[in-house]
Specification:
Helix content is 48%, strand content 16%. By secondary structure, it is an alpha/beta fold. Helix 28 (712-718) packs across helix 29 (720-729). The chain is globular, with a radius of gyration of 27 Å. It is an enzyme of class 2 (transferase).
Length: 819
């Protein structure tokens, strides 16, 4: 037996009997509990410790092999990791899920209850963080040497309650009772500096003064599916470097004694502090710098343990920036080389510019971060100097013969000449990276043609595309066991590591026996979800209804309000004609709005208000129901997605970089209703136009409409149906007992707010495609064949394929097997 972070570790045995004994031993020796006093949470912790025992030996073997071979490693920088519940995922990847279930059942325990005791690790806001988690799974599965780096937030993505239709946020205290998965590594803690000033020593700038913060690493081990490789996710938690001032405390200076500690710990306290305030923006900049500085020092430390100088740094280190948030890493690595290792500028820039790769995940301007120069100078004075020098060299490098040189220089400059001046972090990421990629074919083209066009003119070979993907281990094998078993029965068991083998299902598309089994899987999933939602929220849902699902972050460009307008239109038609021939439909929406995003919160209120009215109106004869499911996360997704018939992917064309919810839903047999946006385009190519419902303006048409002048008020004044629906929504009828103005911000945004995401322009096309959905769903045989074809055609959208493309095309990374 050996000790690990306060818990005992035991010899592993993968039989149900061996697993049972390991769980009982952990219950007794690690938790000091006996079976007759143990709570479900105790059983979950003991089971997780047993699982971790199996992972640790594989990790040690992985690390020994990587160190012995001095491998090139990927270091993945992401401000978000949406891991969810690790126990079922890890048990599946280790191949001991069924044995563990038998062991727990043999102990007289409810397996589902034990699994649901695990807090969800929600260190992400949505798709970006979940993508990062999928990538970690694929990296280990494909045996690539990799480290993930991020922040150990004390409070993850907030818990969402719906009270009187309004979103109310509660803190997500996910570490309150301890986390058996994490391994604390205090020996590898890093000290970083903030604020201070620059002094000159023999014509060399020296950063002095300010505050020092301690970064403590917490490691999570990430096993691959049927793979001997276990990689690491290292998350940094901030602490004070200053000893507690007991003397000040004893003389009554209580606040003085704890003020420094409180400031330091606030850095890793909350995921995405509200940046509507100056102090919120400052904290967010500090968060980003803190995590990249700790991570880069850790990378340099590891590199120097294996190499004597930095000449081999680019051949052994590739640092991937997962969106713009970690872009300050480029200036920080320059500072480390220049100030801490005394390398000359030219050598430092040569090393830096050869080891960074950057993925842009959005075309939305608010995500392309910019920091005011005064804020930057106060928090990171040395980095501002470095950025100005990088910018000078960048602008000097622009050929004098290039057309419209002055305008191009203005666009690529790292400094935006506003009042106050702004530091453009996306430009820094592009300038300092050897590779830039988008995450869908359309997105990558828009980066080259529009958002980053000046950079593309200067260096087109830098730009690539890698369409996003999802891990089939979570989004099919774990979340939809009924469909997974049916697939394995039909085509064998190798598909979870080679998802394109799903193509074999195409031979069953017209097979009546397989169609019957596939429909039974879908109906069983719908019945299970209906029961769950009835039990938890008292939602009344008919499993035989069409399940129309839109589950994603609440944002105007994702257009939940377009969905709502169609539902209102359908409601009005039913009131006019209660015998309207439509198949009963349940609209399920879910997602969280950023705490400071007032209009997104208004959309949530509107959905709940309209849903409450419809669901209690006997005149609709239960033909439509509308529910907003609170606190959407990975666990809820794993229940909703397998039950969905229709997948709403209705973002404004040109605004969604890729989307991965579209992939998860289509893989599980939901037919997509979508615009020509993001990965919808590639899903269309994969499944064929007869098996997807595409509508609306295309990105180029949106651009042209914007250029010629789009007037939403004119649509409102000339279109009787749209006018009626908007007036109805804003009339106060849906918010009795409250001010009629409650939903006016939403109505105003669509009329006099300019309708920035073209909801009214696409309304009638959306309404028409939904009528087509209704008609086709009534032909059950045809619908099921389309659903099977969607599942069979989605193999290319595996995160394994994405990672293989990154590894070969961008990272130049080779697998490394434990000896």
């Amino acid at each position: 037996m050996t000790s690990r972070s306060g818990y005992w570790r035991f010899t592993t045995d993968t039989t149900p009997e061996g697993i049972r004994e390991a769980i009982l031993t952990h219950l007794r020796l690690s938790l000091a509990r006996s079976p007759d006093t143990a709570t479900p949470f105790d059983w979950w912790v003991s089971t997780a410790m047993m699982c971790q025992d199996h992972i640790v030996d594989q990790f040690l073997a992985t690390y020994r092999a990587q160190k012995a071979d001095k491998v090139k490693r990927l270091y993945f920088f992401s401000l978000e990791y949406f891991l969810g519940r690790l126990l079922p995922q890890n048990l599946i990847n280790l191949g001991i899920l069924e044995q563990t279930k038998k062991a727990l059942t043999g102990l007289g325990l409810d397996v589902d209850q034990i699994f649901e005791e695990e807090p969800q690790i929600g260190l992400g806001n949505g798709g970006l963080g979940r993508l990062a988690a999928c990538f970690l799974d694929s990296l280990s599965t494909l045996r690539y040497p990799a480290f993930g780096y991020g922040l150990h937030y004390e409070f993850g993505l907030f818990h969402q309650d719906i009270i009187n239709g309004y979103q109310v946020e509660r803190p997500d205290d996910w570490t309150r009772f301890g986390v058996p998965w994490e391994i604390i590594r205090p020996r590898f803690s890093q000290v970083i500096r903030l604020y201070g000033s620059i002094e000159w020593d023999k014509q060399k700038p020296v950063w002095v003064g300010g505050k020092e913060i301690l970064g403590v690493p917490y490691d999570y081990l990430i096993p691959g599916y049927r793979s001997p490789v276990v990689n690491v996710l290292r998350l940094w938690r901030s602490k004070s470097t200053v000893e507690f001032d007991l003397e000040a405390f004893n003389r009554g200076g209580y606040f003085e004694a704890v003020a420094e500690k409180s400031f330091c710990e606030s850095i890793s306290k909350v995921l995405y502090p509200n940046d509507k305030t100056e102090i919120g923006r400052e904290l967010r900049l500090i968060q980003q710098y803190f995590f990249v500085s700790c991570s880069l020092h850790d990378i340099v430390r590891r590199f120097l343990n294996e190499h004597t100088d930095f000449d081999d740094f680019p051949s052994k280190v590739v640092i991937h920036l997962n969106d713009t948030h970690p872009a300050i890493a480029i200036a920080e690595l320059m500072r480390i080389f220049l100030d801490e290792h005394n390398l000359p500028w030219s050598k430092s820039w040569e090393l830096v510019s050869q080891c960074f790769a950057y993925t842009n995940h959005t075309l939305m301007p608010e995500a392309l971060e910019k920091w005011s120069v005064p804020l930057f100078e106060r928090v990171l004075p040395r980095h501002l100097q470095i950025i100005y020098e990088i910018n000078k060299q960048l602008l000097d490098s622009v050929p004098t013969t290039i057309p419209q040189r002055d305008e191009l220089i203005r666009q690529i400059s790292l400094i935006e000449e506003t009042q106050p001046k702004l530091v453009r972090m996306a430009n820094l990421a592009i300038c300092g990276s050897y590779s830039i990629n988008g995450v869908s074919a359309l997105h990558s083209e828009l980066l080259k043609k529009e958002l980053f066009h000046p950079f593309y003119i200067l260096n087109p070979k830098k730009f690539h595309n890698v369409t996003n993907g999802i891990t089939p281990r979570l989004w099919l094998l774990a979340s939809n066991p009924r469909l997974s078993n049916l697939i394995t029965e039909a085509i064998g068991e190798d598909w979870p590591t080679d998802l394109e083998k799903l193509e074999g299902l195409k031979s069953f598309v017209a097979d009546p026996a397989f169609q019957e089994k596939y429909e039974l899987v879908k109906q069983s999933n719908k019945a299970e979800l209906s029961s769950l939602l009835k039990q938890r929220y008292n939602f009344v849902i008919d499993p035989d209804a069409l399940f129309d699902v839109q589950v994603k972050r609440i944002h105007e460009y994702k257009r939940q309000h377009l969905n709502l307008l169609h539902i209102l239109s359908l409601y009005r038609r039913l009131l006019d004609n209660p015998n309207l021939d439509i198949h009963p439909r349940v609209f399920l929406l879910a997602g969280k709005a950023a705490p400071g995003y007032d209009l997104a919160k208004c959309i949530i209120k509107a959905i709940n208000a309209v849903g409450n009215k419809i669901n209690n109106d006997p005149r609709v004869n239960k033909k439509i129901r509308l529910y907003f499911v609170p606190n959407y996360g990975i666990w809820l997704a794993s229940k909703i997605i397998p039950a969905a018939d229709v997948s709403e992917q209705i973002s404004t064309a040109g605004k969604e970089a890729s989307g991965t919810g579209n992939m998860k839903l289509a893989l599980n047999g939901a037919l997509t209703v979508g615009t020509m946006d993001g990965a919808n385009i590639e899903i269309l190519e994969a499944v064929g136009e007869q098996n997807i419902f595409i509508f609306g303006l295309k990105a180029e048409e949106i651009r042209q409409l914007s250029a010629t002048g789009y007037c939403s008020r004119k649509i409102y004044e000339t279109d009787p149906e749209i006018k009626y629906l908007l007036d109805w929504l804003g009339s106060g009828e849906f918010t009795p007992g409250e001010s009629p103005a409650v939903l006016q911000p939403l109505v105003h945004s669509l009329i006099d707010g300019g309708d920035p995401f073209f909801v009214l322009a696409d309304f009638h096309a959306y309404k028409e495609i939904q009528s087509k959905v209704d008609q086709q769903y009534k032909d059950r045989k045809m619908w099921i064949s389309k659903a099977i074809l969607n599942t069979a055609s989605l193999g290319w959208f595996s995160s394994d394929r994405s990672i293989q493309q990154y590894a070969s095309m961008i990272w130049h990374l080779a697998p490394c097997l434990p000896k």
